[in-house]
């Protein structure tokens, strides 16, 4: 056993050239503008309008705006139009693309090919034709038995349905040999109508937010009796910042832990990692830039509005961020982003890691969900404007959001709980397991002044020249620099739910997970809170036709006071905050089984079921699915670690020990009195090897204890958390010490120094 495979791989990596692609050009050979490429592989509303007769398109738009099911004639017309559009661009197959409860997407491809039989006097004549009907567009039937169902479906009950989500446009993805596949974004439901996916509940939650928010907006801004309400639709908007690692695929292939679990189960930091703070926003390595650029081109073609790319804090860590979109479409686009990044990285001989904590001791990765609400007039309801202290609509909406987080913070914590995110929360630039909200100095003072019925404190400082829309202007005493706009709030990177100017950033969401479930629950909690605010306002205004400013202020003050415990402006990583949060009565949920238990809390169950976002059976199923997934993830990690330690790490240590022993024996008597350096090194390794062997035995015992309770997902998750995870931590401690003592020539797998600095 030796490190020869590592050495040869590193030589190959050094000599490897980045993959090159041709950027799209116009007919005269000039590079196309981004706007010309954007959405070219999407069957957008504009494309649909061109392809459909005007009455059919008008019918579709009417049904879309009214959130009504399509009639068969309209579906047939759309199916025919999209087939022609897709096949003209090389499509041979179509697929209903959906989101099972696996944090991934699923698809089953069907060809456009059909056979047509014609009966003549000579007999039956079979002809091949291309066809795609409205019924095929609207609905398909994948096998539902092999997807997580949490007991809602038996193994022998296989039927499930995918149904086209008309709010998300169809698109083309490249297939093999220059062909393509038509993707139809869909929901996934069981034979009995239960949601088996992530999207159905997200769509339900956005409807409830719209309904509750319009109710409040029309209450505070009424119209004359008999007139149409001013507000008929409110959308939740989302921008998902995606963090990830990129490493060389050849080195990845030599790490069984990375291949099977997405993270390193053993390994020490190199002398230089992120402590110099020189990677963040630094120059993007050429291999990575080539991958980023190719992925962005594919995403632009798919209508994914990628805006930002940069180095993140840890070595080989990067980020892509999009422009805000309606929430359900933003979720689709985030999952597409992950899929495209993985495919393009593979073509560039790299491997993308979405795991929240692939490397111990350096920053993990998150998926910061920037969330807000917008009216059908394009108004951002979380925009404080120039004077938030007198913007009562904004303050009522803000009070509702704070009320939502205060009432259902534990449930929000459950939505970001996973075996992988558990390693990240509370460490290196990741928010803690205590859910709190950060507003910033200015907005916090606005709420305090309203609550205390006093004037707003003066925030002006010598370096501040004047108040401008949305913030202030800074004077940095350099004449050649323009005025620098300053936001109303600073940013708090330690807060799991931070206000960042005109939106909230839900920072605790894990990089690997779908944003759908966290956003669904956030939407649900806000919808319920908006109902509470409306009810309080009606009670306050009594029989009056509209609330006065005094009525609004009274309700705002009521919710400012009741939600004060959830507001925290300090360092979320500090021990002092843990103690303070306990005094405030905020839950500090430290592990996944305790987080999942929040789904059984009567307060949360009542809210989710009352709004119709989950049925009780769907909620119960998700409770069991989360436990089952957690237990399986931990068990895969434990078995991978046991195999890695017993088949690679220990044997390499044994070989090195044998080499040391042989050398020490040969040198005995030659070097005079005392122990030889080789013998000293051998004796230093011996207790570590024994400790590792004992830790492996303890790990094996914990794995056995999981098998004892096999079949009970909740019990398995508890054993995984209380026994297996600590046993893995203990084994890793000794394995990492052994790595320090083992000569590089004998160490069998790529080290951090090679993976993070290829």
UniProtKB/TrEMBL annotation:
<dbReference type="Pfam" id="PF00120">
    <property type="entry name" value="Gln-synt_C"/>
</dbReference>
<comment type="similarity">
    <text>Belongs to the glutamine synthetase family.</text>
</comment>
<dbReference type="Pfam" id="PF12437">
    <property type="entry name" value="GSIII_N"/>
</dbReference>
<feature type="domain" description="GS beta-grasp">
    <location>
        <begin position="92"/>
        <end position="193"/>
    </location>
</feature>
<dbReference type="InterPro" id="IPR008147">
    <property type="entry name" value="Gln_synt_N"/>
</dbReference>
<dbReference type="InterPro" id="IPR027303">
    <property type="entry name" value="Gln_synth_gly_rich_site"/>
</dbReference>
<dbReference type="Pfam" id="PF18318">
    <property type="entry name" value="Gln-synt_C-ter"/>
</dbReference>
<protein>
    <recommendedName>
        <fullName>Glutamine synthetase</fullName>
    </recommendedName>
</protein>
<dbReference type="InterPro" id="IPR022147">
    <property type="entry name" value="GSIII_N"/>
</dbReference>
<dbReference type="InterPro" id="IPR014746">
    <property type="entry name" value="Gln_synth/guanido_kin_cat_dom"/>
</dbReference>
<dbReference type="GO" id="GO:0006542">
    <property type="term" value="P:glutamine biosynthetic process"/>
</dbReference>
<dbReference type="InterPro" id="IPR008146">
    <property type="entry name" value="Gln_synth_cat_dom"/>
</dbReference>
<dbReference type="InterPro" id="IPR052725">
    <property type="entry name" value="GS_Type-3"/>
</dbReference>
<dbReference type="GO" id="GO:0004356">
    <property type="term" value="F:glutamine synthetase activity"/>
</dbReference>
<dbReference type="InterPro" id="IPR040577">
    <property type="entry name" value="Gln-synt_C"/>
</dbReference>
<feature type="domain" description="GS catalytic">
    <location>
        <begin position="198"/>
        <end position="649"/>
    </location>
</feature>
């Amino acid at each position: 056993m030796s490190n020869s495979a590592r050495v040869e791989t590193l030589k190959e990596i050094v000599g490897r050239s980045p993959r090159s692609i041709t950027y799209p050009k116009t007919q005269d050979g000039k590079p196309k503008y981004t706007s010309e490429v954007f959405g070219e592989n999407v069957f957008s509303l504009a494309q649909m309008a061109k392809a459909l007769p005007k009455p059919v398109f008008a019918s579709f738009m009417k049904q879309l705006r009214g959130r009504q099911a399509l009639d068969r004639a309209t579906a047939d017309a759309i199916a025919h139009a999209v087939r022609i559009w897709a096949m003209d661009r090389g499509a041979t197959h179509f697929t209903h693309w959906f989101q099972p409860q696996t944090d991934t997407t699923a698809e089953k491809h069907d060809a456009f090919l059909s056979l047509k039989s014609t009966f003549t006097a000579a007999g039956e004549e079979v002809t091949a034709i291309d066809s795609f009907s409205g019924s095929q567009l609207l609905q398909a039937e994948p096998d539902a038995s092999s997807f997580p169902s949490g007991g809602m479906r038996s193994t022998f009950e296989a039927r499930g349905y995918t149904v086209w989500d008309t709010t998300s446009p169809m698109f083309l993805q490249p297939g093999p040999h220059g062909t393509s596949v038509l993707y139809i974004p869909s929901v996934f439901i069981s034979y009995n109508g239960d949601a088996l996916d992530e999207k159905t509940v997200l769509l339900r939650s956005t409807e409830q937010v719209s309904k509750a928010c319009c109710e409040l907006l029309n209450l505070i801004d009424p119209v004359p009796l008999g007139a149409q309400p001013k507000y008929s639709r409110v959308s939740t908007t989302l921008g998902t910042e995606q963090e990830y690692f990129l490493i060389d695929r050849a080195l990845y292939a030599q790490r069984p832990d990375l291949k099977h679990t997405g993270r390193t189960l053993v390994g020490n930091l190199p002398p230089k990692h992120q402590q110099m703070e020189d990677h963040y926003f630094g120059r993007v390595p050429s291999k990575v830039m080539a991958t980023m650029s190719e992925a962005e081109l594919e995403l632009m073609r798919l209508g994914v509005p990628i805006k930002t790319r940069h180095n993140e804090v840890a070595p080989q860590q990067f980020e892509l961020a999009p422009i805000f979109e309606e929430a359900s479409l933003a979720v689709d686009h985030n999952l597409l982003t992950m899929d495209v990044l993985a495919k393009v990285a593979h073509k560039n001989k790299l491997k993308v890691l979405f795991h929240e904590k692939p490397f111990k001791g350096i920053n993990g990765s998150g998926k910061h969900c920037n969330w807000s609400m917008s009216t059908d007039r394009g108004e951002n309801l979380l925009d404080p404007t120039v004077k938030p202290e007198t913007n009562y609509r904004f303050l009522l909406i803000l009070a509702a959001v704070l009320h939502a987080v205060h009432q259902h913070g534990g449930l929000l914590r459950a939505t970001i709980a996973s075996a992988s995110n558990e390693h990240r929360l509370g460490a290196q630039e990741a928010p803690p397991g205590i859910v709190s909200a950060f507003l910033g100095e200015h907005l916090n003072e606005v709420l305090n002044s309203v609550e205390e019925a006093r004037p707003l404190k003066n925030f002006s400082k010598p370096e501040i020249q004047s108040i401008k829309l949305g913030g202030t202007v800074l004077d940095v005493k350099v004449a050649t620099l323009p005025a620098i706009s300053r936001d109303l709030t600073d940013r708090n990177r330690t807060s799991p739910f931070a206000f960042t100017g005109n939106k909230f950033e839900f920072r605790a969401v894990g990089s690997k997970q779908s944003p759908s479930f966290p956003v669904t629950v956030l939407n649900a909690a806000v919808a319920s809170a908006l109902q509470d605010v409306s009810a309080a306002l009606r009670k306050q205004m009594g029989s009056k036709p509209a609330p006065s400013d005094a009525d609004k202020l009274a309700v705002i003050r009521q919710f400012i006071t009741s939600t004060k415990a959830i507001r925290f402006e300090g360092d979320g990583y500090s021990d002092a905050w843990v103690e303070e949060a306990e005094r405030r009565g905020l839950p500090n949920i430290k592990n996944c089984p305790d987080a999942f238990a929040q789904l059984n809390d009567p307060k949360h169950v009542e809210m989710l079921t009352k709004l119709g976002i989950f049925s009780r059976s769907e909620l119960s199923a998700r409770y069991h699915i989360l436990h089952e997934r957690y237990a399986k993830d931990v068990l895969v990690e434990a078995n991978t670690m046991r195999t890695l330690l017993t088949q690679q790490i220990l044997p390499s240590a044994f070989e090195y020990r044998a080499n040391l022993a042989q050398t020490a024996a040969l040198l005995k008597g030659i070097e005079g009195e005392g122990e030889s350096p080789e013998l000293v090194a051998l004796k230093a390794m011996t207790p570590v090897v024994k400790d590792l062997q004992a830790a492996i035995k303890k790990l094996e015992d914990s794995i056995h204890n999981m098998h004892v309770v096999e079949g009970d997902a909740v019990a398995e998750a508890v054993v995984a958390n209380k026994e297996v995870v600590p046993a893995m931590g203990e084994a890793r401690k000794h394995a990492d010490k052994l790595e320090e003592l083992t000569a590089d020539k004998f160490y069998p797998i790529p080290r951090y120094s090679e993976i993070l600095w290829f």
